[in-house]
Amino acid sequence: MRMCALLPFLAVIAASAQSRAVATYNRDVQPILQRACVACHSPGQVAPMSFTSYENTRPWAVQIKAVVTHKKMPPGVVERHYGLFGDDGALHQQDIVIIVQWVDAGAPEK
Q1: The pLDDT of residue 74
Q2: In this structure, are residues 74 and 90 in contact, taking their beta carbons and an 8 Å threshold?
Q3: Does 62 map to a domain?
Q4: Interatomic CA distance for residues 80 and 85, integer angstroms
Q5: Are 51 and 34 contacting, i.e. CB atoms less than 8 angstroms apart?
Q6: How many of the other CB atoms lie within 10 Å of CB of 98?
Q7: Residue 9 lies in a domain
Q8: Half-sphere exposure for 81 (CA within 13 Å, toward CB)
Q9: What separation in angstroms does the CA of 103 have from each of 22, 35, 88?
Q10: Contact in structure between 33 and 98 (CB atoms under 8 Å)
Q11: What is the pLDDT of residue 38?
Q12: Residues 6 or more apart from 69 whose CB is under 8 A from it?
């Protein structure tokens, strides 16, 4: 009988954990883009589209997923065989996972 009393609470905890598993632009994707993409993907820079806001980035979500999963973006900016560098703009595998989760969830803003 006690377990039945806990079921509503367990359901709330499970739903809360599931909602946190969905990557959002504001919380998860924007920091990645700021670190690795906006140097080129800003108005007046070399890239043809801007990723400086959700409104600018959202239309490109599916394409972003494709180029990061195929490791076409960001382009190779550092020849790693010359040594270790600071933040070279490369995406870590966890960054790619977050972007894929975001796109697969419908690219939510918040």
Answers
A1: 84
A2: yes
A3: yes
A4: 8
A5: no
A6: 20
A7: no
A8: 0
A9: 10, 19, 24
A10: no
A11: 94
A12: 96, 100
Q: Which residues contact 74 (CB under 8 A, 6 or more apart)?
A: 36, 37, 40, 89, 90, 91
> Averaged in consecutive runs of 10 residues, what is the pLDDT profile of the chain (110 residues)?
54 47 96 94 95 98 96 70 56 96 98
Q: Is residue 18 part of a domain?
A: no
Instruction: State both tokens at 87.
Output: 């933040």
Cis peptide before 48 (omega within 30 of 0): no
Q: What total number of domains does the chain contain?
A: 1
- Answer yes or no: is 7 within a domain: no
pTM: 0.73
- 37 CB-contact burial (10 Å; exposed 0-12 / middle 13-18 / buried 19+): buried
Domain limits for position 88: 23-104
Amino acid at 10: L
pLDDT at residue 75 in the model? 81
For the chain, the C-alpha Rg in angstroms (whole number) is 18
| Residue-level pLDDT at 21 | 78
What pLDDT does 5 receive? 58
Pair 22, 105: CB distance under 8 Å: yes
